[in-house]
Amino acid sequence: xxxxxxxxxxxxxxxxxxxxxxSHKHVGSLHAPDAALAxxxxxxxxxxxxxxxxxxxVRSSDIVAGDPSERDSYFGPAEDKTFxxxxxxxxxxxxxxx
Amino acid sequence: MDPALVEFLLxxxxxxxxxxxxxxxxxxxxxxxxxxxxxxxxxxxxxxxxRLWLAYAGECEGxxxxxxxxxxxxxxxxxxxxxxxxxxxxxxxxTMGRQFLFDxxxxxxxxxxxxxxxxxxxxxxxxxEREVAYHVRRSGDWVIRLGDGTEKSHGLMQAALDxxxxxxxxxxxxxxxxxxxxxxxxxxxxxxxxxxxxxRVDGVLAEATLARPKDGWMHSGGRSGRHSExxxxxxxxxxxxxxxxxxxxx
Lengths: 98, 250
Description:
heterodimer; A: alpha+beta; Ubiquitin-like (UB roll); three-stranded antiparallel beta sheet; 3 helices; 3 strands; 23% helix; flat; B: mainly alpha
């Protein structure tokens, strides 16, 4: 396989919804020349074992990510606010997705 | 035993088997890993289909030959695939051109066979049709991208089409086997597939800015066992291990 050609194709992030009622989950990334082929490649790379009910692809360059150096001020304040976590509830038996 | 039915089932099985083996030749060699996986999926779909056809062929033949026995222990002249599927992989345009021309035909054929009066034929066709509907979308998309791509890819795609076109005539020429089975409602006459095939091919070629090659002299013979020299090499690779150690198991 030639890495040179591969790099010429943009990178896409792949999201798969594995069943009804669940949300799309990031499963990985792949290279493809355009959106239609990115969807086909996602099908061939990530849903070979019947993992998917729905697929999204998005150009990696279109994702806006937070700055890791601001992590402390971003997420730090939530650390000591345990009252926000629903840890005091008991999950009813048989509920798989809450 | 109905010899025409056995012959027909071998043709279906051998088309899928030989093309599956051909496409599998890209495994580890595709231009990018995504294509490598996609081609492997297609190859495995086809080999899975060939097992179903050949297993049924063996049962109808009644000589106790399994799908494996038919795949591994027949020689080239006993294979009944169309010549198109034994064409070499060549470059990516050659592979995708071969795939698209075949897929477009395969899909129409399977759709017709889904209505077969033979429940087993109809069942296999329905399962395969779902897979092939995806194959033709993929191969058609590649023909469009290469045709409507760079000057170089356009040239390669047009050359591939011109080279492969004389092998498409065989796809639409019924013989006594086809006519006998069509009369029984088991299979169809191949001429009936041509219009739908042409429409799909013309649509893709127009979008790909490619010229449809002229219908001239056409190769034929694969369906009655007269093959090009390429088939023997494919079979040698595919059959060498089981022939060297016939009783061996995985």
